[in-house]
Amino acid sequence: MAKLLWTERTDFGPCPRGGSAASWDSNRGRTVLFGGNAGSKGDNGETWEWDGSYWTQMSDIGPGARTYSALAYDSANKVSLLFAGSKGGIPTGDTWQWDGMNWTQLADTGPPPRSGHAMAYDSNRQRTVLFGGVASDVSQFGDTWEFDGESWTQQQDTGPSPRSGHGMGYDSLNGRIVLFGGGGTDGNGLGDTWAWDGQEWVEIAEFGPSPRVYSSLVSIAGAALILYGGVSALIGGSQVFFDTWQFDGKLWTQRQDIGPGPLYSAAMAFDVSRTAVVLFGGLTAFPFSDAALSGDTWESTVPAGGTAGAALARVTSIVIQSPVLQDTATQMTLTLSAPVPQPTVVLLTGPVFLPNGQNLDQVEIPAETTTFSQQVAFASPAGNMVEGQVTVVAQVSGTPGVSTVVTVN
Q: How much of the chain, in percent, has pLDDT values that exceed 70?
């Protein structure tokens, strides 16, 4: 079985802290880190970015100091979206976005104030999905919300039990959000795995990591998710884990026990450009103490083969004959960076149709393919006419997209 090799990259950068939030900005090629609790120094409101070699402190003006907020990258709007978190022990309910230069506060309505919730971005439906968390009276939420870039909408209220400290990531092969674990109302860890397809929650994968709270979970490009560490419960005598697991959309597989050591409440993101899982900070022992805070940065390369191998493929070019007539089909050719070991979905953005007039928002690339061609058109029988210069973007979920400009006459 292929191993994930964890390597300590640096202990220089953000001060030691736990409960930070992280995301991967695929547009700018940076891991974004925000906030966290630095023990006796209190909650933190710093924004840092990691380029694979160095940490750089960015804007200090924005959401304000907090811990256990959630951060997810919205690839459609090219911003990292942050919601809520705890300020001095009091949950907030504000929504912010980071574009690499500035923080901007967005919707002032949405989910009730909370911390310890989780978010993930569904790139197929272009929605940020939020679940759970804990309120100021320490009661837990079991609600599901989605953010479309402008406003929050509450979804169904059935699914996973109320919880906080769980992890969520996007399974792009199956087009769904995957949720694992967290802490229940009694403080004990949970070990269940759920999937959200935009309509309903379904429990999946009966076997997997042992029950835990505040593990670090991130989706790598493709179907797989990577999980590290966590703590067995938020009560005395709890065990802090140091195991690494991978989820392929159906099964959990333990990868190895060698890595950063016992750790929970660490921030994690997947650097697509270097195919590296980036992990920062966290707590090495329970209960909380200044001595348990970590400020280390670790990375693990994604193993080749299996579902993780599929994650390494990205679109390197999209070619469409130009100019093209509205009522004439033309050929679109996609080139990938590597053969895909299993069918892989490429998402398309732009006013492009099939020759029969059906809207074309994705194509499936067959296994073992690096080049794929598809007949497309820029008008439909329903009267959707396109004229002038249009941009079409192709992207494997979680990887950088490429674009081409087509002149339609």
A: 92
Domain ranges of the chain: 6-310, 313-408
SS3 state at 40: helix
The tens digit of pLDDT for each residue in 326-340 reads 778 899 999 988 776
**Overall fold of domain 313-408:** Immunoglobulin-like (2.60.40)
Whole-angstrom Cα distance, residue 185 to residue 65? 26
Q: Which of 2.40.128.630, 2.60.120.260, 2.30.110.10, 2.120.10.80 would CATH assign to domain 6-310?
A: 2.120.10.80
The residue assigned the tokens 């690339």 is: 365
For residue 299, give both structure tokens: 């990375």
Task: Pick the closest to residue 191 from 167, 173, 174, 169 (CA basis).
Answer: 167
The full length of the chain comes to 409
In order, the DSSP letters of 59-90 are -S-SS-SBBS-EEEEETTTTEEEEEEEEETTE
Averaged pLDDT for residues 114-139:
95
Token code pair at residue 340: 């895909």
Q: 178-208 in b/e burial notation, b at 16+ Cβ within 10 A?
A: bbbbbbbeeebbbbbbbbbeeeebeebbeeb
181 φψ region: left (φ > 0), alpha (ψ -120 to 50), beta (else):
left
